[in-house]
Amino acid sequence: MELKPVGLGVLLFVLLGSCSAQLPKWRSPSLGQPQQITGRGPVQQVGARLPLQDPVSGVLVNPEDPLSVQLKQVMQGPVKKLTWHFPQAPEKPKQPEVYFEPRQPVSVVSVAADCGENSVYVEVKKDLFGTGELINPSALSLGGCTATGEDSAAQVLIFEAELQLCNSVLTTTADELVYSFILQYASEPLGGMPILRTGGATVAIECHYPRLHNVSSNALLPAWIPYASTVTAEERLVFSLRLMTDDWQYERPSNQYFLGDLINIEASVMQYNHVPLRIFVDSCVATAAPDANAVPRYSFIENYGCLVDAKLTGSTSRFLPRVQADKLQFQLEAFVFQQQGSNLIYLTCFLKATPVSASAPTDAVHKACSFTANRWTTADDDDRVCGCCDTSCGLRDGGSASPVAGPQWEGNISVGPVWIGEKSPVWQRGGVN
Questions:
Q1: Is this prediction's pTM over 0.90?
Q2: Beta-strand (E) ranges in 236-364?
Q3: Does 109 have pLDDT greater than 90?
Q4: 108-223+424-429 — its CATH code?
Q5: Do residues 218 and 206 make contact, with C-beta atoms less than 8 angstroms apart?
Q6: Phi/psi zone of residue 166: left (φ > 0), alpha (ψ -120 to 50 degrees), beta?
Q7: Architecture of domain 239-421
Q8: pLDDT tens-digit profile of 179-223?
């Protein structure tokens, strides 16, 4: 008798139905104690309730438990990136390429000579170098002879001397007689200060007497040696002191100036993680060497921001009206030191910055004052703060300095070397126009 396949299938189903499945324990996020899950019946029904392990977080998740699913979503949520970083120091903006051609001095016709039959007649403008600075007549001589007259209206000094006098030198050639004179100007310091705004000058004057008695003249011009260098210093708040072009738009590519020129200087502070700042130039000195304490030494800004150069020497040096709180511009008339072989000067200034205050923008120790038209004026808003420039600013009755209101930042900044050349006078035949 053969067994049929149908009976075998029924037997296996019975055996499987009589077995109990042992399921793993798991802890529901919503319950505190482990639970034992058992069941009877088809395998596919028991497996549908098994907890699943998340492959990313490793947490057992029951698909039928909403708290468990929520836990999975929290563990797999996006992580917000950190955007904070330490503040970076500001980069100094790059200056565009500036077309700059240093000005060359134009020879000033300030000396004229006429040679007569027995004498020489010389006229000399008191503005000998064409800079606006009038010379001291006692410092000018023709071969040791002083001026014999003066035209006050035309600002002209007059020399008249016989050909054989005033240390003239006679030279004889085959065709002519030549009488040579030396017109000499010895520069003098201004106001007792160790600086000069006009250089010494020597002009050779010759009277030629050929058969036809022609008169000729020659001019002596010095050779100019160009030199360029610019130095900008930085401190804690990125203070700077720069030589500027005539329109104040760019840093000047050259440091070459001539006596009588105005040196445009801009002091500034870069505002880095600070409230708006106002800058002041407390003091400035000029030296012939990089050392600010070198001798000779000329202090042209002192007493907490008083630009004294104009009062001491009669120059046109001044602060310009302030157009921006964090910048201060001033002009210094070029000069050289007396009895120094070098035409280089170095400028060192003490700068300070304070928070901008609408209630008290300036005071006796925070100011920028210029001496113009015989009085002190400020670059800011109230000339009264300049009233102490002729005495001692910032000192109270007891002799102590006034306290500084609020925080203050300060530092020494230098710029240089600055090359100062001399303008040379020339002379022509005939009178001075």
A1: no
A2: 239-243, 256-258, 262-269, 277-287, 297-302, 306-307, 318-319, 327-333, 336-337, 344-355
A3: no
A4: 2.60.40.3210
A5: yes
A6: left
A7: Sandwich (2.60)
A8: 888 888 887 776 677 777 766 778 888 888 765 433 443 433 333
